[in-house]
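Entry 14. Ran structure prediction on the chain below.
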Amino acid sequence: MRMRPTLSWTPTEDLPPGTTDLRPVADALSTGGVLVLSGAGISTESGIPDYRGEGGSLSRHTPMTYQEFTASGPARRRYWARSHLGWRTFGSARPNAGHRAVAAFGRHGLLSGLITQNVDGLHQAAGSEGVVELHGSLDRVVCLSCGAFSPRRELAVRLQEANAGFEPVAAGINPDGDADLTDEQVGDFRVLPCTSCGGILKPDVVFFGEAVPPQRIEYCRRLVRDAASLLVLGSSLTVMSGLRFVRQAVQAGKPVLIVNRDPTRGDRHALTRVALPLGTALTTVAHRLDIPVDGRAARPTR
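Output, structure tokens:
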């Protein structure tokens, strides 16, 4: 039986209520040096559901764990069938107003860095540069045997050729690009090996139960040390991969601001939590700072 990862968080204390007052966020950005930490919530307006918000995918979907993927051939077949279908849907997503606003803040020199927990590439598609992909990217594939990297689009072509006629209708798409399919829909989907050594291929993303590379964590810690403040966008901060940077900022005396509609695990550390949709909130802040937000920098993600 598959074990469900520990992914939920329930508040054990009274948390400060959310607000609609955007002035602290605008003030922090106006002084510059803001490090952004983004989560799945910033991509929901692009049609990619988050994990834990209202209607979040965890209510119907158990993400693949690293341990299950590496230990089980049937699990890999299930994952690649679902991911192959999800990749096509995922690739049609486009940056929304929240992504474009973050890119505009960067172009105007207000950000010291951008760390994203997302694997969808939408920040880059909106024009943001120097994005640190904390959990990797679905754009790349890595061989677990020889370590070779390759573009996901190349594997997608190979899988399409090897599984002609594979056209099931998914019940939904998830933040990790994994489509919801039944075992019957997965059927005998053919999984392909590394073209260099015949090893097991895995998307270059950090699965649940897998550690973020330590050098990537240390680089993010340096970004926190160099920042004037930390702005969290669309993350519940349930897992330690993001929460650790909030705690670091607080310990260093740096203000933490959160824009997320639902309570987060970092609320008690934050100067404020703005409970507004990301696109609306960030576009409003940009207008207050006389920063234009448009779609000219947007490009397809695939």
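The longest strand covers residues 136-143. Will compare against last week's run tomorrow.
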